[in-house]
What does this fold into?
Amino acid sequence: MRAYVAGAGLAGCECAWQLAKRGAEVTLLEMKPLSRISAHHTDFFAELCCSNSLRGEGVECAPGLLKEEMRRLESLIIRCADETRVPAGGALAVDRDGFSKAVTAAIRANPRITVIARELESLPGERPLIVATGPLTTDALARDILRVLGGEDAKALSFFDASAPLVAAESIDMQSAYFASRYGKGGGDYLNCPMDKDEYTAFWKELCGAERAQLHAFEDEAVFEGCLPVEVMAGRGPDTLRYGPLKPIGIRDPRTDKGAYAVVQLRRDNAAGSVYNLVGFQTHLTFPEQRRVFSMIPALRNAEFLRFGVMHRNSFIDSPRLLTADFQSRVSPGLYFAGQLTGVEGYIESAASGLVAGICAYSFLSGEKTPVFPPETAVGALCRYISDPGVKEFQPMNINFGLLPPLPGGTVKKGEKKGLLARRALETLGAVIPCLPKGRSSQ
Ligand SMILES: Cc1cc2nc3c(=O)[nH]c(=O)nc-3n(C[C@H](O)[C@H](O)[C@H](O)COP(=O)(O)OP(=O)(O)OC[C@H]3O[C@@H](n4cnc5c(N)ncnc54)[C@H](O)[C@@H]3O)c2cc1C
It folds into this structure.
């Protein structure tokens, strides 16, 4: 029983580990040390290319819950992170090289995993194959992935991520916001956040002067031309936004029938209506600046940002159309994808998807029933997000509580909600774990 994994990053290592742990022989194909993607600086596997933080701890924050679930699913990545942690307040941060060395050593010492140094230019024909070559997948391989998945359909694979911030619906100040559509067309689909002249002017000034994130060496300004960041648009003049995404014309507050000087529109981002995106707010500001400046919009003064806007090179496939919840191609049995390439965003999310893809690919190999991770769990919520054909404009997503189904009843006190969601997630996972394929042996 042999499986093939492409890419020894966070997702690929976790995936190979989960397969081998169940008794599968694994061939892991990785271009290091022959060459490196531009964001990498070492020859270790599971390299953290930017921050050394795996984000919040404690199950009452969504990244903490995801990590706890992965711990219970015996994740290699979380085990190595726990072993190499450094003090970081409420976050799980790691000794960068110590972490990658620990993962590399575990993979290399595993007798069932054979590492082959090779830069793939096309997808190997063997199955199951799990492709986990990350957001900076090399060009030739990316073209072949597009050929295999999309044929003529260029939308099957994006090379660039430009996403606006997302906020939690319950954190929007509804005293300062209202539902309405421009000229009353479309049934009040948008949540409008009006600003008067003084509020807009103060916001515009701060937006123009706010700190922008550094471009990486492999990104150039031209990449961003097709999709202008909101701060760049603002820099073109005080009224540019009022003729663009903040256009107030035709939008009236149904409570007062008044218009506004400028209006930020929020659009539902999930079916449950628990998450909203800021329309037209693609941005390259640093995350703290996004929080500071966008919180100047009166309705967002206490907003909880579930995801900040990003604009960077990032290859990801149009997973909702192309993958099922086990990270398998809808049209090519035994072809799986994992990691950031599937549209999960972040180190732990990438590793979590590798964990699921590894377990599911093992069931493909062994002929066992494909396990299902319910959306009430953080892991399962990611599986649902990447495979939900109802998602219209698919963008990479961090784990957040807005991805989990709401609690029944709807009368939960605000301060108790996350704890209850976390408890439900861990109980649900507890029932799933005994049903997962165990394989021939465990390590
Ligand atoms: C510049 C940048 C900064 C980021 N910063 C953060 C951050 O601070 N925090 C965070 O949570 N997330 C961050 N991310 C997002 C994401 O979490 C990471 O990119 C994460 O490493 C993705 O994991 P992965 O396993 O999907 O891919 P990777 O970890 O990138 O692993 C992919 C592996 O595939 C190999 N590979 C690529 N092409 C080929 C090929 N053709 N043949 C063989 N091997 C190949 C690579 O060498 C690499 O080892 C960042 C992303 C980028 C691009």
Summary: The mean pLDDT is 92. DSSP finds twelve helices and 16 strands in the chain.
